[in-house]
Amino acid sequence: LTQDELKKIAAYKAVEYVESGMVLGLGTGSTAKHAVDRIGELLSQGKLKNIIGIPTSKKTHEQAVSLGIPLSDLDSHPVVDLAIDGADEVDPHMNLVKGRGGSLLREKMVEGACKKFVVIVDETKLVKYVGASGLAMPVEIIPFCWKFTAIRLQKLFEYAGCSAKLRTSGENGDPFVTDNGNYIVDLYFKQDMGDLRAASDAILQLAGVVEHGMFLDMATTVIVAGELGVKVTDK
Ligand code: DER
Does the keyword Ion transport apply (predicted)? Predict the structure, then answer.
């Protein structure tokens, strides 16, 4: 099975939790895309009715519009019944790294407002500890004096061998700009950060930081699709 086929299997399994009448958080990324497609399909077949989608990015908003999924926002629906979204890393405590697609802020707002948050991943996303993949742990920051903020983030995690890099988009090397008009500094770790809650608090205390990509104690269910089958873990 290809990685994308595994993503699709996890996504379809998650959509089994969707009931008619729900307000749904619609995730962002290549795995969540399959879940949104599936919801659109069930709606068009009349197997799901009266769904309201709360998209976690402009990209997902466009996908949902093209599928005819009725959409709204957190102002109109401050409580969301269920969110389905992917993740870049899942640790053994169901802590996540998200945001490698750049949508972490709206994802965290929507998923923080959910009664249930179902995470869908293929098995390559499982890690021993957050940051262990050596891939980015994103931090959304305001553009003003981004270098000042990036250096302070790097210093914060010197003990974990952290390096901070401004995310650029395209070949011209311009800074990547999020849906919210902010920049992203990607943090790369060589060792375990240790106490993630303390790390989260330290990041958010830096003036100029908007949000980070660690989703701690937020997932209620994790669905992992692997070569040997699908594994569902509840909090
Ligand atoms: O950017 C994000 O938060 C995405 O949900 C990411 O975490 C997972 O993206 P993928 O499903 O394309 O791997």
Answer: no
The residues assigned a catalytic role are 107
The reported pLDDT for the residue numbered 136 is 97
pLDDT digit string (tens) for 74-84?
999 999 999 99
Helix residue ranges per DSSP H, 25-128: 30-44, 58-67, 104-112
| Contact present, 184 and 176 (Cβ < 8 Å) | yes
Question: Which of helix, strand or coil describes residue 40?
Answer: helix
Query: Rounded distance, CA 85 to CA 118, Å?
Result: 7
Q: Is 30 in the pocket of ligand 1 (CB under 6 A)?
A: yes
Q: What is the ipTM of this complex?
A: 0.97
Pocket of ligand 1 contains residue 178 by CB under 6 Å: no
